[in-house]
Specification:
By secondary structure, the chain is α+β, with helices and mostly antiparallel strands. The chain folds into two domains: 37 residues; 117 residues, Glutaredoxin. The chain has six helices and four strands, in the order αβααβαββαα. A four-stranded mixed beta sheet has the order 2-1-3-4. A hairpin with a 2-residue loop joins β3 and β4. α2 crosses α6.
Length: 157
Protein backbone atom coordinates (compact mmCIF):
# COMPACT_ATOMS: atom_id res chain seq x y z
CA UNK A 1 0.00 0.00 0.00
CA UNK A 2 2.87 2.43 0.82
CA UNK A 3 4.43 1.69 -2.57
CA UNK A 4 1.15 2.57 -4.25
CA UNK A 5 0.92 5.85 -2.27
CA UNK A 6 4.52 6.67 -3.13
CA UNK A 7 3.91 5.93 -6.83
CA UNK A 8 0.76 8.07 -6.83
CA UNK A 9 2.61 10.96 -5.17
CA UNK A 10 5.45 10.67 -7.68
CA UNK A 11 2.93 10.60 -10.53
CA UNK A 12 1.17 13.69 -9.11
CA UNK A 13 4.48 15.56 -8.85
CA UNK A 14 5.37 14.57 -12.42
CA UNK A 15 1.96 15.66 -13.74
CA UNK A 16 2.20 18.94 -11.85
CA UNK A 17 5.68 19.59 -13.31
CA UNK A 18 4.45 18.83 -16.84
CA UNK A 19 1.45 21.10 -16.35
CA UNK A 20 3.69 23.91 -15.08
CA UNK A 21 5.97 23.56 -18.13
CA UNK A 22 2.97 23.59 -20.46
CA UNK A 23 1.51 26.71 -18.84
CA UNK A 24 4.88 28.48 -18.96
CA UNK A 25 5.30 27.69 -22.66
CA UNK A 26 1.76 28.88 -23.47
CA UNK A 27 2.34 32.16 -21.61
CA UNK A 28 5.68 32.66 -23.35
CA UNK A 29 4.19 31.92 -26.78
CA UNK A 30 1.17 34.14 -26.25
CA UNK A 31 3.42 37.04 -25.23
CA UNK A 32 5.66 36.58 -28.26
CA UNK A 33 2.71 36.00 -30.58
CA UNK A 34 0.95 39.12 -29.30
CA UNK A 35 4.04 41.16 -30.14
CA UNK A 36 3.99 39.73 -33.68
CA UNK A 37 0.27 40.53 -34.01
CA UNK A 38 0.61 44.12 -32.82
CA UNK A 39 -1.90 46.16 -34.76
CA UNK A 40 -0.81 47.94 -37.89
CA UNK A 41 -1.78 51.58 -37.99
CA UNK A 42 -1.13 54.40 -40.40
CA UNK A 43 -0.76 57.83 -38.85
CA UNK A 44 -0.99 60.99 -40.90
CA UNK A 45 1.12 63.45 -38.89
CA UNK A 46 0.94 67.15 -39.59
CA UNK A 47 4.13 68.58 -38.09
CA UNK A 48 4.31 72.28 -37.22
CA UNK A 49 6.16 74.61 -34.88
CA UNK A 50 5.14 77.27 -32.40
CA UNK A 51 4.84 79.91 -35.11
CA UNK A 52 1.78 79.18 -37.30
CA UNK A 53 1.46 81.36 -40.38
CA UNK A 54 -1.65 81.40 -42.59
CA UNK A 55 -0.09 78.99 -45.08
CA UNK A 56 0.85 76.52 -42.33
CA UNK A 57 -2.62 76.53 -40.79
CA UNK A 58 -4.13 76.14 -44.28
CA UNK A 59 -1.91 73.11 -44.93
CA UNK A 60 -3.14 71.49 -41.73
CA UNK A 61 -6.79 72.35 -42.37
CA UNK A 62 -6.72 71.02 -45.94
CA UNK A 63 -4.84 67.87 -44.89
CA UNK A 64 -7.32 67.12 -42.13
CA UNK A 65 -10.28 67.82 -44.45
CA UNK A 66 -8.97 65.61 -47.26
CA UNK A 67 -8.38 62.72 -44.86
CA UNK A 68 -11.63 63.11 -42.92
CA UNK A 69 -13.75 63.26 -46.08
CA UNK A 70 -12.30 60.18 -47.80
CA UNK A 71 -11.22 57.93 -44.93
CA UNK A 72 -13.92 58.18 -42.26
CA UNK A 73 -14.22 54.37 -42.04
CA UNK A 74 -10.47 53.92 -41.53
CA UNK A 75 -10.38 56.75 -38.98
CA UNK A 76 -13.28 55.24 -37.09
CA UNK A 77 -11.75 51.74 -37.04
CA UNK A 78 -8.35 53.03 -35.89
CA UNK A 79 -6.40 51.79 -38.92
CA UNK A 80 -5.76 55.45 -39.77
CA UNK A 81 -5.24 58.42 -37.46
CA UNK A 82 -4.60 62.11 -38.01
CA UNK A 83 -2.35 63.84 -35.48
CA UNK A 84 -1.15 67.40 -35.37
CA UNK A 85 2.22 67.64 -33.60
CA UNK A 86 4.21 70.69 -32.51
CA UNK A 87 7.86 69.76 -33.02
CA UNK A 88 8.99 72.80 -31.01
CA UNK A 89 7.81 71.03 -27.85
CA UNK A 90 10.76 69.17 -26.26
CA UNK A 91 9.01 65.78 -26.16
CA UNK A 92 8.33 65.99 -29.93
CA UNK A 93 11.73 67.18 -31.19
CA UNK A 94 12.77 63.60 -32.00
CA UNK A 95 10.35 63.64 -34.97
CA UNK A 96 12.63 66.14 -36.75
CA UNK A 97 15.41 63.57 -36.89
CA UNK A 98 13.12 60.52 -37.14
CA UNK A 99 11.53 61.76 -40.37
CA UNK A 100 14.13 64.24 -41.68
CA UNK A 101 11.84 67.24 -41.21
CA UNK A 102 13.01 70.70 -42.30
CA UNK A 103 9.67 72.54 -42.47
CA UNK A 104 5.99 72.05 -41.74
CA UNK A 105 5.12 68.63 -43.15
CA UNK A 106 2.43 66.02 -43.69
CA UNK A 107 4.03 62.63 -43.11
CA UNK A 108 2.37 59.25 -43.45
CA UNK A 109 3.78 56.70 -41.01
CA UNK A 110 3.06 52.98 -40.93
CA UNK A 111 3.35 51.59 -37.41
CA UNK A 112 3.30 48.10 -35.97
CA UNK A 113 2.65 48.59 -32.28
CA UNK A 114 5.13 51.31 -31.33
CA UNK A 115 7.61 50.48 -34.13
CA UNK A 116 7.85 52.59 -37.31
CA UNK A 117 7.74 50.34 -40.36
CA UNK A 118 8.02 53.06 -43.03
CA UNK A 119 7.12 56.68 -43.67
CA UNK A 120 6.51 59.08 -46.54
CA UNK A 121 6.68 62.87 -46.49
CA UNK A 122 3.98 64.36 -48.75
CA UNK A 123 6.12 67.27 -49.94
CA UNK A 124 3.84 68.36 -52.78
CA UNK A 125 1.42 69.92 -50.27
CA UNK A 126 3.61 73.03 -50.48
CA UNK A 127 3.06 73.44 -54.22
CA UNK A 128 -0.67 72.58 -54.14
CA UNK A 129 -1.93 74.51 -51.11
CA UNK A 130 -3.53 77.26 -53.23
CA UNK A 131 -5.49 74.72 -55.32
CA UNK A 132 -7.79 72.99 -52.83
CA UNK A 133 -9.20 70.32 -55.21
CA UNK A 134 -5.70 69.37 -56.42
CA UNK A 135 -4.41 69.38 -52.84
CA UNK A 136 -7.22 67.10 -51.64
CA UNK A 137 -6.80 64.79 -54.63
CA UNK A 138 -3.05 64.49 -54.00
CA UNK A 139 -3.42 63.80 -50.27
CA UNK A 140 -6.25 61.32 -50.77
CA UNK A 141 -4.39 59.48 -53.53
CA UNK A 142 -1.22 59.24 -51.43
CA UNK A 143 -3.08 58.10 -48.29
CA UNK A 144 -5.04 55.47 -50.26
CA UNK A 145 -1.84 54.09 -51.82
CA UNK A 146 -0.06 54.08 -48.45
CA UNK A 147 -2.98 52.26 -46.77
CA UNK A 148 -3.15 49.75 -49.61
CA UNK A 149 0.54 48.95 -49.26
CA UNK A 150 0.21 48.69 -45.47
CA UNK A 151 -2.72 46.27 -45.83
CA UNK A 152 -0.83 44.19 -48.40
CA UNK A 153 2.19 43.99 -46.08
CA UNK A 154 -0.06 43.12 -43.13
CA UNK A 155 -1.51 40.21 -45.09
CA UNK A 156 1.96 38.81 -45.77
CA UNK A 157 3.12 38.99 -42.13
Amino acid sequence: MNNLKHSMNSLNVLLFALLACFVASVVQCSTACAANRAPFTVIAYYFHGNYRCTTCTTLERLSRKAINEKFSKELESGTLAFKSVNVDEPQNRHFIEDFGLYTKSLVLVEMQGDRVIRHKNLQEIWTLWRDEPAFENYVQKEVAAFLKEANAAKGSK
